[in-house]
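This part of the workshop introduces the protein records we will be handling. A record pairs a protein's sequence with a compact description of its fold. Comparing a sequence with its tokens is the quickest way to learn the format. The record below serves as our worked example for the rest of this section:
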Amino acid sequence: MRVYNVPAPVQRVVKICEGDSIRVGSKVHKNTGFYRDTLLTIFGCDSIINTDLKIAPRFYFVQNDICTGQNVEIGNQIFTGSGVYTVSLKNYFGCDSIIVLNLKVNDVIRKSIDYKICPGESVKVGIKLYTQPGVYLDTLSSAKGCDSIVTSKLIFNHVVKDLTYNICEGSEVTVNNIKYNQEGIYRDTITKADGCDSVLNIKIVVNKKYVTFAVFEICKGAGLTIGGSTYFNAGAYTELLSSVKGCDSTVNFEIKIVNFVPIFYAVKDTLKAIQIEGAKYQWYECVNGERVQILGASKSDFVLFKSGKYALGITYMGCTYFSDCKDFISTGIVQQTNAPWFTVFPNPADLQFTIRSDKDSKLIIRDIRGRILFKTTLSQGDHQIDVSSWVTGIYILEMTSGRSTYKSKLVIK
């Protein structure tokens, strides 16, 4: 008898495509698994074959999540948007396989958050800690693994308020149960309902109460109004007024009446008044009880051009006073109507006037103060005198022929 050795079990791993199969002896295997098959050798002995069968599936289902801006590459195809995609490839077994990709694209999260905190508190965003007001930008990672951009606006929830109070001297103001009566800048803190402090910057301005004294001079018959009262008489008075800041002001004042009577006198043919510094003078001719202003007669003295009644007006410190009308007789004035040998026309004159003389004469023209402005010798006949550059006023025209001298008034308008 011949004895044969029993063969050792055969161990093998077999990979096939889905739908294919393998035959071991009389058996056919097409599912994934571990198979033990016993066969007879040519010598009639048992031969054991252990087969680890692996099946390469035809379909592969893939679930993938990516972030905006990312992509998935399968084979030579690239996918960037959400959707279900089918890709046919050869797998590592060499089998045809279909990959079904379920792709979801997660957006980048952008979030804005407002925070209100009290000074000294903080806000934590990611790993960062913020304590000061401002706008902060942080990039965090979401649950999906994508970037999350967080904009944080941080403000202090306390209040800083500037307050200004104007008070009168001796008064006070109450702020947050504290009384203030001295000028200065103060700081107070109030706790709000949300727990944050409110800061008050308080400025106190103390306005003075004024006591003043003044002297007022008014014209006789005029009035002076102070506050709501009008005063006409001389004397000392007191008024309580309110300043522009609303505080009491005491005004002590005295009223003096400016009152005088202009006095003047005659020196030969000139009327003279006492000179007062700052005063203005005006002479008048009195006609039928009325004062008629003499043009150009605005000095403290006045040369008479004829006998008559005259008055003086003096304006001083805004007040004008008049003298009575007084009679004056000129010693050397003869009226033009009594001058037999010459006439003057036109009178009043403008640019020029004419003297018609029956005799050879000497002509002198003086201003109202007696100063000589023009002199010449005239022959018998008409003579034109140019006065276009002369100021408006009254002038004294003096004609002399032989031993006779006559004076006449010339008016330049």
Notes: The radius of gyration is 64 Å. Residues 333-338 have pLDDT under 50 and may be disordered. The longest strand covers residues 46-56.
